[in-house]
Design brief:
Chain lengths: ~180, ~425
Protein backbone atom coordinates (compact mmCIF):
# COMPACT_ATOMS: atom_id res chain seq x y z
CA UNK A 1 0.00 0.00 0.00
CA UNK A 2 2.92 2.23 -0.89
CA UNK A 3 0.78 4.65 -2.89
CA UNK A 4 -1.73 5.34 -0.10
CA UNK A 5 1.02 5.61 2.50
CA UNK A 6 3.00 8.09 0.47
CA UNK A 7 0.31 10.27 -1.10
CA UNK A 8 -2.89 10.19 1.02
CA UNK A 9 -3.74 13.88 0.55
CA UNK A 10 -3.00 13.90 -3.16
CA UNK A 11 -5.27 10.87 -3.69
CA UNK A 12 -8.09 12.58 -1.80
CA UNK A 13 -7.64 15.76 -3.82
CA UNK A 14 -7.59 13.93 -7.14
CA UNK A 15 -10.73 11.93 -6.31
CA UNK A 16 -12.58 15.14 -5.41
CA UNK A 17 -12.20 16.42 -8.96
CA UNK A 18 -14.47 13.90 -10.64
CA UNK A 19 -18.11 12.88 -10.31
CA UNK A 20 -17.04 9.35 -11.28
CA UNK A 21 -13.93 8.03 -9.60
CA UNK A 22 -12.83 5.95 -12.57
CA UNK A 23 -11.65 9.23 -14.11
CA UNK A 24 -8.97 9.35 -11.41
CA UNK A 25 -7.23 6.29 -12.81
CA UNK A 26 -4.62 8.00 -15.02
CA UNK A 27 -3.62 10.56 -12.34
CA UNK A 28 -3.34 7.79 -9.74
CA UNK A 29 -1.29 5.65 -12.10
CA UNK A 30 1.14 8.55 -12.53
CA UNK A 31 1.46 8.74 -8.75
CA UNK A 32 1.71 4.98 -8.38
CA UNK A 33 4.57 4.95 -10.85
CA UNK A 34 6.22 7.62 -8.74
CA UNK A 35 5.81 5.52 -5.58
CA UNK A 36 6.74 2.12 -7.03
CA UNK A 37 9.21 3.19 -9.73
CA UNK A 38 7.23 1.64 -12.56
CA UNK A 39 3.73 0.33 -13.24
CA UNK A 40 4.35 -2.99 -11.52
CA UNK A 41 1.53 -5.45 -11.05
CA UNK A 42 1.46 -4.58 -7.36
CA UNK A 43 1.24 -0.86 -8.11
CA UNK A 44 -1.61 -1.34 -10.58
CA UNK A 45 -3.43 -3.59 -8.14
CA UNK A 46 -3.28 -0.86 -5.53
CA UNK A 47 -4.73 1.67 -8.01
CA UNK A 48 -7.46 -0.81 -8.93
CA UNK A 49 -8.22 -1.37 -5.26
CA UNK A 50 -8.57 2.36 -4.52
CA UNK A 51 -10.92 2.88 -7.45
CA UNK A 52 -12.84 -0.43 -7.30
CA UNK A 53 -11.66 -1.31 -10.77
CA UNK A 54 -10.68 -4.62 -12.26
CA UNK A 55 -6.85 -4.84 -12.06
CA UNK A 56 -6.88 -6.11 -15.65
CA UNK A 57 -8.36 -2.81 -16.75
CA UNK A 58 -5.65 -0.80 -15.02
CA UNK A 59 -2.93 -3.03 -16.47
CA UNK A 60 -4.40 -2.55 -19.95
CA UNK A 61 -4.09 1.21 -19.49
CA UNK A 62 -0.47 0.78 -18.43
CA UNK A 63 0.16 -1.02 -21.70
CA UNK A 64 -1.69 1.53 -23.81
CA UNK A 65 -0.16 4.81 -22.63
CA UNK A 66 3.52 5.39 -23.29
CA UNK A 67 4.33 7.41 -20.16
CA UNK A 68 3.78 4.37 -18.00
CA UNK A 69 6.81 2.13 -17.75
CA UNK A 70 5.94 -1.53 -17.50
CA UNK A 71 9.53 -2.49 -16.67
CA UNK A 72 11.88 -0.94 -14.11
CA UNK A 73 13.66 2.14 -15.46
CA UNK A 74 16.64 4.22 -14.39
CA UNK A 75 16.43 7.02 -11.88
CA UNK A 76 16.46 9.44 -14.82
CA UNK A 77 14.49 8.58 -17.94
CA UNK A 78 15.86 10.48 -20.91
CA UNK A 79 13.28 10.58 -23.68
CA UNK A 80 14.57 12.12 -26.88
CA UNK A 81 12.11 13.14 -29.56
CA UNK A 82 13.36 11.95 -32.94
CA UNK A 83 10.23 12.57 -34.95
CA UNK A 84 10.56 14.15 -38.38
CA UNK A 85 10.64 17.81 -37.27
CA UNK A 86 13.31 17.13 -34.64
CA UNK A 87 15.21 14.78 -36.95
CA UNK A 88 15.49 17.56 -39.54
CA UNK A 89 17.42 19.43 -36.86
CA UNK A 90 19.73 16.59 -35.93
CA UNK A 91 17.76 14.54 -33.38
CA UNK A 92 18.78 11.13 -34.76
CA UNK A 93 22.47 12.03 -34.57
CA UNK A 94 21.83 13.32 -31.06
CA UNK A 95 20.32 9.95 -30.07
CA UNK A 96 23.38 8.14 -31.46
CA UNK A 97 25.65 10.45 -29.49
CA UNK A 98 23.66 9.98 -26.26
CA UNK A 99 23.64 6.23 -26.73
CA UNK A 100 27.40 6.18 -27.28
CA UNK A 101 28.14 8.41 -24.30
CA UNK A 102 25.91 6.49 -21.90
CA UNK A 103 27.10 3.23 -23.46
CA UNK A 104 23.58 1.86 -23.69
CA UNK A 105 21.27 1.14 -26.62
CA UNK A 106 17.93 2.91 -26.99
CA UNK A 107 15.59 1.46 -24.33
CA UNK A 108 18.63 0.41 -22.30
CA UNK A 109 19.49 1.38 -18.72
CA UNK A 110 22.99 2.11 -17.44
CA UNK A 111 24.53 -0.48 -15.09
CA UNK A 112 24.45 1.95 -12.18
CA UNK A 113 20.68 2.24 -12.63
CA UNK A 114 20.87 5.98 -13.19
CA UNK A 115 19.86 6.49 -16.82
CA UNK A 116 17.37 4.99 -19.24
CA UNK A 117 17.48 6.24 -22.83
CA UNK A 118 14.34 6.22 -24.96
CA UNK A 119 13.16 7.73 -28.20
CA UNK A 120 9.65 9.16 -28.21
CA UNK A 121 7.13 10.75 -30.54
CA UNK A 122 6.69 14.52 -30.89
CA UNK A 123 6.89 16.46 -27.60
CA UNK A 124 5.68 19.84 -28.93
CA UNK A 125 9.11 21.45 -28.89
CA UNK A 126 10.06 21.08 -32.57
CA UNK A 127 11.48 24.61 -32.74
CA UNK A 128 13.94 23.80 -29.95
CA UNK A 129 15.37 20.54 -31.26
CA UNK A 130 17.33 18.54 -30.42
CA UNK A 131 15.48 18.17 -27.17
CA UNK A 132 14.49 15.60 -24.61
CA UNK A 133 12.41 15.24 -21.50
CA UNK A 134 14.09 13.98 -18.37
CA UNK A 135 11.51 12.73 -15.87
CA UNK A 136 9.03 14.98 -17.73
CA UNK A 137 11.22 18.09 -17.53
CA UNK A 138 11.99 19.54 -20.96
CA UNK A 139 15.65 20.12 -21.88
CA UNK A 140 15.83 22.05 -25.15
CA UNK A 141 18.23 23.47 -27.75
CA UNK A 142 20.62 20.64 -26.92
CA UNK A 143 24.00 19.76 -28.31
CA UNK A 144 26.78 17.47 -27.15
CA UNK A 145 28.20 19.96 -24.63
CA UNK A 146 24.78 20.62 -23.10
CA UNK A 147 24.09 16.91 -22.95
CA UNK A 148 27.39 16.34 -21.10
CA UNK A 149 26.51 19.13 -18.67
CA UNK A 150 23.05 17.66 -18.08
CA UNK A 151 24.45 14.20 -17.37
CA UNK A 152 27.06 15.62 -14.98
CA UNK A 153 24.41 17.61 -13.14
CA UNK A 154 22.15 14.56 -12.81
CA UNK A 155 25.02 12.35 -11.64
CA UNK A 156 25.95 14.95 -9.02
CA UNK A 157 22.35 15.22 -7.86
CA UNK A 158 22.12 11.44 -7.53
CA UNK A 159 25.44 11.24 -5.65
CA UNK A 160 24.35 13.98 -3.25
CA UNK A 161 21.02 12.16 -2.86
CA UNK A 162 19.31 15.41 -3.75
CA UNK A 163 16.80 14.37 -6.35
CA UNK A 164 15.34 17.00 -8.64
CA UNK A 165 11.79 17.89 -7.57
CA UNK A 166 9.36 15.40 -9.10
CA UNK A 167 7.02 16.97 -11.64
CA UNK A 168 4.35 14.34 -11.02
CA UNK A 169 4.43 15.14 -7.29
CA UNK A 170 4.31 18.86 -7.96
CA UNK A 171 1.35 18.61 -10.31
CA UNK A 172 -0.50 16.20 -8.02
CA UNK A 173 0.00 18.61 -5.13
CA UNK A 174 -2.28 21.12 -6.87
CA UNK A 175 -5.12 18.72 -6.23
CA UNK A 176 -4.65 18.86 -2.46
CA UNK B 1 5.35 47.72 -37.53
CA UNK B 2 3.44 44.54 -36.81
CA UNK B 3 0.11 44.65 -35.03
CA UNK B 4 -0.08 43.77 -31.38
CA UNK B 5 -0.62 40.11 -30.61
CA UNK B 6 -4.18 39.01 -29.95
CA UNK B 7 -3.29 35.52 -28.73
CA UNK B 8 0.41 35.55 -27.90
CA UNK B 9 -0.07 38.65 -25.76
CA UNK B 10 2.74 37.68 -23.39
CA UNK B 11 5.13 38.75 -26.15
CA UNK B 12 3.87 42.33 -25.78
CA UNK B 13 2.98 42.42 -22.09
CA UNK B 14 5.40 41.12 -19.52
CA UNK B 15 4.04 38.80 -16.81
CA UNK B 16 0.58 38.52 -18.35
CA UNK B 17 0.48 35.01 -16.90
CA UNK B 18 -0.14 36.73 -13.56
CA UNK B 19 -3.75 37.47 -12.76
CA UNK B 20 -3.20 41.09 -11.72
CA UNK B 21 -1.29 41.88 -14.91
CA UNK B 22 -3.86 40.09 -17.05
CA UNK B 23 -6.70 42.02 -15.38
CA UNK B 24 -4.86 45.33 -15.65
CA UNK B 25 -4.79 44.70 -19.41
CA UNK B 26 -8.49 43.99 -19.87
CA UNK B 27 -8.38 40.40 -18.65
CA UNK B 28 -11.71 38.89 -17.52
CA UNK B 29 -13.57 41.98 -18.78
CA UNK B 30 -15.07 39.80 -21.51
CA UNK B 31 -16.22 37.29 -18.89
CA UNK B 32 -17.70 40.06 -16.77
CA UNK B 33 -19.43 41.47 -19.83
CA UNK B 34 -21.14 38.21 -20.78
CA UNK B 35 -22.12 37.39 -17.20
CA UNK B 36 -23.71 40.79 -16.57
CA UNK B 37 -24.97 41.90 -19.99
CA UNK B 38 -25.73 38.86 -22.12
CA UNK B 39 -27.91 35.77 -22.14
CA UNK B 40 -26.05 32.54 -22.98
CA UNK B 41 -27.77 32.38 -26.38
CA UNK B 42 -26.47 35.84 -27.25
CA UNK B 43 -22.92 34.73 -26.48
CA UNK B 44 -23.29 31.79 -28.87
CA UNK B 45 -24.63 34.18 -31.52
CA UNK B 46 -21.65 36.53 -31.07
CA UNK B 47 -19.16 33.70 -31.52
CA UNK B 48 -21.15 32.41 -34.51
CA UNK B 49 -21.15 35.87 -36.08
CA UNK B 50 -17.37 36.16 -35.66
CA UNK B 51 -16.81 33.18 -37.94
CA UNK B 52 -14.29 31.67 -35.50
CA UNK B 53 -13.31 28.17 -36.64
CA UNK B 54 -11.70 25.43 -34.55
CA UNK B 55 -7.93 25.84 -34.32
CA UNK B 56 -7.19 22.21 -33.52
CA UNK B 57 -7.12 21.32 -37.18
CA UNK B 58 -10.64 20.55 -38.33
CA UNK B 59 -11.74 24.18 -38.66
CA UNK B 60 -15.30 23.51 -37.56
CA UNK B 61 -17.27 26.70 -36.74
CA UNK B 62 -17.03 27.17 -32.97
CA UNK B 63 -20.34 28.99 -32.42
CA UNK B 64 -22.19 26.31 -34.37
CA UNK B 65 -20.57 23.61 -32.21
CA UNK B 66 -21.78 25.39 -29.07
CA UNK B 67 -25.28 25.74 -30.51
CA UNK B 68 -25.63 21.93 -30.80
CA UNK B 69 -25.74 21.61 -27.00
CA UNK B 70 -29.32 21.00 -25.85
CA UNK B 71 -30.81 24.03 -24.09
CA UNK B 72 -32.59 21.98 -21.41
CA UNK B 73 -31.05 22.30 -17.95
CA UNK B 74 -28.83 19.48 -16.70
CA UNK B 75 -25.23 18.41 -16.31
CA UNK B 76 -23.01 19.66 -19.17
CA UNK B 77 -19.28 19.93 -19.68
CA UNK B 78 -16.66 21.98 -21.44
CA UNK B 79 -13.45 20.11 -22.18
CA UNK B 80 -10.38 21.95 -23.40
CA UNK B 81 -8.35 19.91 -25.84
CA UNK B 82 -4.71 20.57 -24.94
CA UNK B 83 -3.49 17.16 -26.04
CA UNK B 84 -1.35 18.84 -28.72
CA UNK B 85 0.58 15.88 -30.09
CA UNK B 86 0.60 16.46 -33.83
CA UNK B 87 4.16 16.34 -35.10
CA UNK B 88 5.30 19.93 -35.65
CA UNK B 89 2.71 21.54 -33.34
CA UNK B 90 3.69 23.56 -30.28
CA UNK B 91 1.28 26.50 -30.06
CA UNK B 92 -1.08 25.43 -27.26
CA UNK B 93 1.94 24.75 -25.13
CA UNK B 94 3.03 28.40 -25.42
CA UNK B 95 -0.47 29.65 -24.56
CA UNK B 96 -0.77 27.40 -21.49
CA UNK B 97 2.67 28.34 -20.28
CA UNK B 98 2.73 32.07 -21.01
CA UNK B 99 -0.87 33.29 -21.36
CA UNK B 100 -2.98 30.78 -19.43
CA UNK B 101 -5.63 33.23 -18.23
CA UNK B 102 -6.83 33.91 -21.77
CA UNK B 103 -7.50 30.18 -22.19
CA UNK B 104 -9.26 30.01 -18.82
CA UNK B 105 -11.38 33.06 -19.65
CA UNK B 106 -12.35 31.61 -23.03
CA UNK B 107 -13.29 28.30 -21.43
CA UNK B 108 -15.40 30.05 -18.78
CA UNK B 109 -17.26 32.01 -21.46
CA UNK B 110 -17.89 28.74 -23.30
CA UNK B 111 -19.16 27.18 -20.07
CA UNK B 112 -21.54 30.08 -19.48
CA UNK B 113 -22.76 29.93 -23.09
CA UNK B 114 -23.66 26.24 -22.99
CA UNK B 115 -24.67 26.04 -19.32
CA UNK B 116 -21.76 23.95 -18.03
CA UNK B 117 -20.59 24.13 -14.42
CA UNK B 118 -17.47 22.05 -14.83
CA UNK B 119 -14.49 22.40 -17.17
CA UNK B 120 -11.61 19.98 -17.64
CA UNK B 121 -8.48 20.96 -19.48
CA UNK B 122 -7.08 17.73 -20.93
CA UNK B 123 -3.36 18.26 -21.41
CA UNK B 124 -1.01 15.61 -22.72
CA UNK B 125 0.92 13.95 -19.89
CA UNK B 126 4.18 15.36 -21.20
CA UNK B 127 2.80 18.84 -20.40
CA UNK B 128 2.89 18.28 -16.63
CA UNK B 129 5.83 20.65 -16.31
CA UNK B 130 4.08 23.27 -18.44
CA UNK B 131 0.78 22.54 -16.71
CA UNK B 132 2.15 23.97 -13.49
CA UNK B 133 1.78 27.43 -15.00
CA UNK B 134 -1.81 26.63 -15.88
CA UNK B 135 -2.51 25.23 -12.40
CA UNK B 136 -1.04 28.33 -10.77
CA UNK B 137 -3.33 30.48 -12.92
CA UNK B 138 -6.32 28.35 -11.85
CA UNK B 139 -5.36 28.79 -8.23
CA UNK B 140 -5.21 32.56 -8.64
CA UNK B 141 -8.70 32.46 -10.15
CA UNK B 142 -10.16 30.42 -7.30
CA UNK B 143 -8.67 32.84 -4.79
CA UNK B 144 -9.99 35.89 -6.69
CA UNK B 145 -13.53 34.58 -7.13
CA UNK B 146 -13.16 34.04 -10.87
CA UNK B 147 -13.60 30.30 -10.42
CA UNK B 148 -15.83 28.54 -7.92
CA UNK B 149 -19.18 29.77 -6.64
CA UNK B 150 -20.80 33.04 -7.74
CA UNK B 151 -18.10 34.07 -10.15
CA UNK B 152 -17.44 37.84 -10.10
CA UNK B 153 -20.43 38.23 -7.79
CA UNK B 154 -22.93 36.78 -10.27
CA UNK B 155 -25.15 33.69 -10.16
CA UNK B 156 -22.72 31.81 -12.36
CA UNK B 157 -20.67 29.10 -10.67
CA UNK B 158 -18.10 26.94 -12.39
CA UNK B 159 -15.10 24.82 -11.48
CA UNK B 160 -12.11 24.07 -13.67
CA UNK B 161 -9.42 21.41 -13.38
CA UNK B 162 -6.27 20.44 -15.20
CA UNK B 163 -6.09 16.83 -16.35
CA UNK B 164 -3.04 15.03 -17.66
CA UNK B 165 -3.00 12.21 -20.17
CA UNK B 166 -0.23 9.69 -20.33
CA UNK B 167 1.22 9.68 -23.82
CA UNK B 168 -1.18 8.96 -26.69
CA UNK B 169 -1.54 11.08 -29.85
CA UNK B 170 -4.97 9.60 -30.45
CA UNK B 171 -6.34 11.44 -27.41
CA UNK B 172 -6.38 14.60 -29.51
CA UNK B 173 -9.40 13.06 -31.26
CA UNK B 174 -12.34 14.30 -29.24
CA UNK B 175 -14.10 11.01 -28.52
CA UNK B 176 -10.80 9.30 -27.70
CA UNK B 177 -10.01 12.21 -25.39
CA UNK B 178 -13.35 11.79 -23.61
CA UNK B 179 -12.82 8.03 -23.29
CA UNK B 180 -9.42 8.72 -21.76
CA UNK B 181 -10.86 11.31 -19.37
CA UNK B 182 -13.40 8.73 -18.26
CA UNK B 183 -10.60 6.35 -17.32
CA UNK B 184 -10.66 4.12 -20.37
CA UNK B 185 -8.27 3.36 -23.20
CA UNK B 186 -7.93 6.42 -25.41
CA UNK B 187 -9.90 5.02 -28.32
CA UNK B 188 -12.44 6.87 -30.44
CA UNK B 189 -16.05 5.87 -30.55
CA UNK B 190 -18.33 5.70 -33.55
CA UNK B 191 -20.35 8.91 -34.00
CA UNK B 192 -23.26 9.32 -33.39
CA UNK B 193 -23.59 9.87 -30.52
CA UNK B 194 -21.81 13.19 -30.96
CA UNK B 195 -20.25 14.68 -27.81
CA UNK B 196 -22.73 17.59 -28.00
CA UNK B 197 -25.48 15.11 -27.13
CA UNK B 198 -23.60 12.34 -25.30
CA UNK B 199 -20.08 13.37 -24.36
CA UNK B 200 -18.27 13.17 -21.05
CA UNK B 201 -20.16 10.82 -18.71
CA UNK B 202 -22.82 10.66 -21.46
CA UNK B 203 -23.68 14.32 -20.86
CA UNK B 204 -23.70 17.11 -23.46
CA UNK B 205 -20.10 18.23 -23.91
CA UNK B 206 -18.25 20.83 -25.95
CA UNK B 207 -14.64 19.96 -26.76
CA UNK B 208 -12.63 22.96 -27.97
CA UNK B 209 -8.97 23.37 -28.76
CA UNK B 210 -6.89 25.60 -26.46
CA UNK B 211 -6.13 28.20 -29.14
CA UNK B 212 -9.78 28.30 -30.22
CA UNK B 213 -10.82 29.29 -26.71
CA UNK B 214 -8.09 31.94 -26.47
CA UNK B 215 -9.83 33.68 -29.41
CA UNK B 216 -13.11 34.02 -27.52
CA UNK B 217 -12.36 36.85 -25.02
CA UNK B 218 -11.11 39.28 -27.71
CA UNK B 219 -14.17 38.46 -29.86
CA UNK B 220 -16.51 39.30 -26.99
CA UNK B 221 -14.67 42.51 -26.12
CA UNK B 222 -14.16 43.85 -29.63
CA UNK B 223 -17.08 42.37 -31.47
CA UNK B 224 -17.62 40.01 -34.39
CA UNK B 225 -17.07 42.74 -37.01
CA UNK B 226 -13.65 43.57 -35.62
CA UNK B 227 -12.73 39.88 -35.67
CA UNK B 228 -13.93 39.45 -39.24
CA UNK B 229 -11.82 42.42 -40.32
CA UNK B 230 -8.77 40.25 -39.60
CA UNK B 231 -7.89 37.43 -42.00
CA UNK B 232 -10.05 36.35 -44.93
CA UNK B 233 -13.78 35.90 -45.40
CA UNK B 234 -13.67 32.11 -45.06
CA UNK B 235 -10.89 32.13 -42.45
CA UNK B 236 -11.28 35.11 -40.16
CA UNK B 237 -9.02 35.98 -37.26
CA UNK B 238 -5.43 35.47 -36.21
CA UNK B 239 -3.74 32.06 -36.28
CA UNK B 240 -0.70 30.80 -34.46
CA UNK B 241 1.53 29.07 -36.98
CA UNK B 242 4.16 26.65 -35.68
CA UNK B 243 7.20 26.79 -37.92
CA UNK B 244 9.92 24.16 -37.69
CA UNK B 245 12.37 22.10 -39.74
CA UNK B 246 14.82 23.73 -42.12
CA UNK B 247 14.27 27.44 -41.43
CA UNK B 248 16.55 30.00 -39.86
CA UNK B 249 14.01 31.15 -37.28
CA UNK B 250 11.79 28.31 -36.13
CA UNK B 251 9.06 29.11 -33.61
CA UNK B 252 5.46 30.21 -33.21
CA UNK B 253 4.18 33.13 -35.25
CA UNK B 254 0.81 34.75 -34.78
CA UNK B 255 -0.26 35.70 -38.29
CA UNK B 256 -3.29 37.17 -39.92
CA UNK B 257 -4.90 34.37 -41.89
CA UNK B 258 -4.07 34.93 -45.54
CA UNK B 259 -0.30 35.34 -45.14
CA UNK B 260 1.45 33.27 -47.82
CA UNK B 261 3.66 30.30 -47.09
CA UNK B 262 6.36 32.08 -49.10
CA UNK B 263 6.34 34.99 -46.66
CA UNK B 264 6.22 32.63 -43.69
CA UNK B 265 9.26 30.64 -44.82
CA UNK B 266 11.35 33.47 -46.26
CA UNK B 267 10.05 36.69 -44.67
CA UNK B 268 12.54 38.34 -42.33
CA UNK B 269 9.88 38.71 -39.65
CA UNK B 270 9.14 35.00 -39.90
CA UNK B 271 11.25 32.01 -40.90
CA UNK B 272 14.05 34.07 -42.45
CA UNK B 273 14.76 31.52 -45.17
CA UNK B 274 16.52 28.17 -45.26
CA UNK B 275 19.83 27.67 -43.44
CA UNK B 276 22.97 27.58 -45.55
CA UNK B 277 21.15 29.12 -48.52
CA UNK B 278 19.92 25.66 -49.48
CA UNK B 279 16.99 25.22 -51.85
CA UNK B 280 13.44 24.58 -50.70
CA UNK B 281 12.16 21.09 -51.43
CA UNK B 282 8.83 20.56 -49.70
CA UNK B 283 6.79 21.46 -46.67
CA UNK B 284 4.22 19.87 -44.47
CA UNK B 285 1.49 22.44 -43.81
CA UNK B 286 -0.26 20.48 -41.06
CA UNK B 287 2.37 18.38 -39.36
CA UNK B 288 2.45 14.73 -40.24
CA UNK B 289 -1.24 14.51 -40.93
CA UNK B 290 -1.69 16.60 -44.07
CA UNK B 291 -0.30 15.87 -47.52
CA UNK B 292 3.15 17.28 -48.30
CA UNK B 293 3.25 20.18 -50.77
CA UNK B 294 6.03 21.46 -53.05
CA UNK B 295 7.27 24.87 -54.22
CA UNK B 296 4.19 25.81 -56.24
CA UNK B 297 2.15 25.90 -53.01
CA UNK B 298 4.41 28.54 -51.45
CA UNK B 299 2.23 31.21 -53.06
CA UNK B 300 -0.88 29.83 -51.34
CA UNK B 301 -2.38 31.75 -48.43
CA UNK B 302 -2.45 30.25 -44.94
CA UNK B 303 -6.22 29.78 -44.69
CA UNK B 304 -8.54 26.83 -44.28
CA UNK B 305 -9.28 26.88 -48.01
CA UNK B 306 -5.93 28.07 -49.38
CA UNK B 307 -4.32 24.67 -49.96
CA UNK B 308 -7.31 22.96 -51.53
CA UNK B 309 -5.96 23.51 -55.09
CA UNK B 310 -2.70 21.87 -53.99
CA UNK B 311 -4.39 18.80 -52.54
CA UNK B 312 -3.56 19.61 -48.95
CA UNK B 313 -4.90 21.34 -45.86
CA UNK B 314 -3.64 23.80 -43.28
CA UNK B 315 -4.88 21.74 -40.30
CA UNK B 316 -3.47 23.20 -37.11
CA UNK B 317 -0.87 25.16 -39.15
CA UNK B 318 2.16 23.14 -38.12
CA UNK B 319 4.54 23.98 -40.90
CA UNK B 320 7.58 21.73 -41.26
CA UNK B 321 10.04 22.88 -43.93
CA UNK B 322 12.39 20.51 -45.76
CA UNK B 323 15.36 21.58 -47.83
CA UNK B 324 16.85 19.97 -50.94
CA UNK B 325 18.93 17.44 -48.97
CA UNK B 326 15.94 15.60 -47.52
CA UNK B 327 15.27 12.08 -48.78
CA UNK B 328 11.49 12.04 -49.13
CA UNK B 329 11.21 8.27 -48.67
CA UNK B 330 12.98 8.73 -45.36
CA UNK B 331 10.57 11.55 -44.47
CA UNK B 332 7.55 9.39 -45.35
CA UNK B 333 8.99 6.55 -43.27
CA UNK B 334 9.44 8.85 -40.26
CA UNK B 335 5.83 9.98 -40.48
CA UNK B 336 4.40 6.53 -41.03
CA UNK B 337 6.43 5.25 -38.09
CA UNK B 338 4.69 7.92 -36.01
CA UNK B 339 1.20 6.85 -37.11
CA UNK B 340 1.96 3.17 -36.70
CA UNK B 341 3.18 3.88 -33.16
CA UNK B 342 0.14 6.02 -32.38
CA UNK B 343 -2.60 3.91 -33.96
CA UNK B 344 -4.88 2.99 -31.06
CA UNK B 345 -5.51 -0.46 -32.53
CA UNK B 346 -9.28 -0.30 -32.59
CA UNK B 347 -9.82 -0.34 -36.37
CA UNK B 348 -8.10 -3.15 -38.25
CA UNK B 349 -7.35 -1.19 -41.45
CA UNK B 350 -5.42 1.44 -39.47
CA UNK B 351 -3.71 -0.92 -37.04
CA UNK B 352 -2.58 -3.42 -39.69
CA UNK B 353 -2.27 -0.94 -42.52
CA UNK B 354 0.12 1.38 -40.73
CA UNK B 355 2.21 -1.64 -39.70
CA UNK B 356 2.54 -2.87 -43.29
CA UNK B 357 3.14 0.59 -44.71
CA UNK B 358 6.05 0.99 -42.32
CA UNK B 359 7.47 -2.43 -43.22
CA UNK B 360 7.24 -1.66 -46.92
CA UNK B 361 8.74 1.80 -46.59
CA UNK B 362 11.60 0.36 -44.56
CA UNK B 363 12.36 -2.16 -47.23
CA UNK B 364 12.22 0.44 -49.99
CA UNK B 365 14.32 2.91 -48.01
CA UNK B 366 16.91 0.25 -47.24
CA UNK B 367 17.29 -0.45 -50.95
CA UNK B 368 15.74 -3.93 -50.84
CA UNK B 369 12.37 -2.92 -52.25
CA UNK B 370 10.91 -3.88 -55.60
CA UNK B 371 8.47 -2.29 -58.03
CA UNK B 372 5.89 -4.67 -56.62
CA UNK B 373 6.49 -3.32 -53.09
CA UNK B 374 5.72 0.14 -54.35
CA UNK B 375 2.44 -1.09 -55.82
CA UNK B 376 1.54 -2.90 -52.61
CA UNK B 377 2.39 0.22 -50.60
CA UNK B 378 -0.03 2.29 -52.68
CA UNK B 379 -2.63 -0.43 -52.48
CA UNK B 380 -2.43 -0.69 -48.68
CA UNK B 381 -2.68 3.11 -48.33
CA UNK B 382 -5.69 3.25 -50.63
CA UNK B 383 -7.42 0.50 -48.70
CA UNK B 384 -7.15 2.28 -45.35
CA UNK B 385 -8.90 5.32 -46.79
CA UNK B 386 -12.48 5.74 -45.62
CA UNK B 387 -12.43 2.59 -43.51
CA UNK B 388 -11.56 3.87 -40.05
CA UNK B 389 -13.58 5.40 -37.21
CA UNK B 390 -11.40 8.47 -36.80
CA UNK B 391 -9.08 10.56 -38.93
CA UNK B 392 -5.82 8.94 -37.76
CA UNK B 393 -6.10 6.28 -40.44
CA UNK B 394 -6.79 8.96 -43.04
CA UNK B 395 -3.81 10.99 -41.84
CA UNK B 396 -1.46 8.01 -41.97
CA UNK B 397 -1.84 7.53 -45.70
CA UNK B 398 -1.14 11.18 -46.56
CA UNK B 399 2.65 11.04 -46.16
CA UNK B 400 2.75 7.95 -48.35
CA UNK B 401 0.47 9.01 -51.18
CA UNK B 402 1.64 12.63 -51.27
CA UNK B 403 5.35 11.77 -51.38
CA UNK B 404 4.68 9.17 -54.08
CA UNK B 405 2.76 11.82 -55.99
CA UNK B 406 5.42 14.52 -55.83
CA UNK B 407 8.61 12.46 -55.57
CA UNK B 408 7.91 9.30 -57.52
CA UNK B 409 11.40 9.38 -59.04
CA UNK B 410 12.94 9.02 -55.59
CA UNK B 411 10.92 5.88 -54.93
CA UNK B 412 11.67 4.63 -58.43
CA UNK B 413 15.39 5.11 -57.97
CA UNK B 414 15.31 3.11 -54.75
CA UNK B 415 13.30 0.17 -56.03
CA UNK B 416 15.31 -0.07 -59.23
CA UNK B 417 18.46 -0.29 -57.17
CA UNK B 418 19.90 2.57 -59.20
CA UNK B 419 20.52 4.94 -56.33
CA UNK B 420 20.34 3.74 -52.76
CA UNK B 421 19.90 7.25 -51.48
CA UNK B 422 18.58 10.00 -53.72
CA UNK B 423 20.02 12.62 -51.45
CA UNK B 424 22.11 12.15 -48.39
CA UNK B 425 19.72 11.29 -45.61
CA UNK B 426 20.05 13.53 -42.62
CA UNK B 427 19.48 10.67 -40.26
CA UNK B 428 18.75 7.02 -39.77
CA UNK B 429 15.14 6.02 -39.20
CA UNK B 430 14.09 4.42 -35.98
CA UNK B 431 13.91 0.65 -36.26
CA UNK B 432 10.44 -0.80 -36.01
CA UNK B 433 9.33 -1.91 -32.57
Amino acid sequence: MLLQEKYPEEIKGILARFPHKKSAVLPLMHLAQEAYGFTSREAMQEVAHILDLDPTHVLSLAGFYTLYYEEPVGKFVLEVCNDLACALRGADKFVEMASRKLDIPVDGTTNDGLFTLKTVMCLAACDRAPMLQCNLKFEEHLDEAKFDALISRLRAAAAAEKPEPSIVEQISAFAR
Amino acid sequence: MRMAHILLRHRDIENIHKLDVYRANGGYDALKKVLTEHQPGEVIDMVKASGLRGRGGAGFPTGLKWSFIPKAPGEKYVVVNSDESEMGTFKDRELLEKNPHQVIEGALIAAYAIGARQVYNYMRGEFMGIGQHFEEALQECYEAGILGDNILGTDFSCRMYGYYGAGAYICGEETALLSSLQGDLGQPWSKPPFPAIEGLYKKPTVVNNTETLANVPPIILNGADWYKSIGTEQSPGPKIVCLSGHVNNPGNYEVEMGLTFQELVYGENYGGGIPGGKKFKALLPSGGSGPVVVADALKAPITYEGLTPYGSTVGSASVVVMDETVDMVWAALKMVHFFKHESCGKCTPCREGTFWMEQLLHRIYDGHGTEKDLEVLKSVATQIKGKTLCALGEFAINPVLSTIRHFFDEYKAKVSGAGQKVAKATAVPTPTD
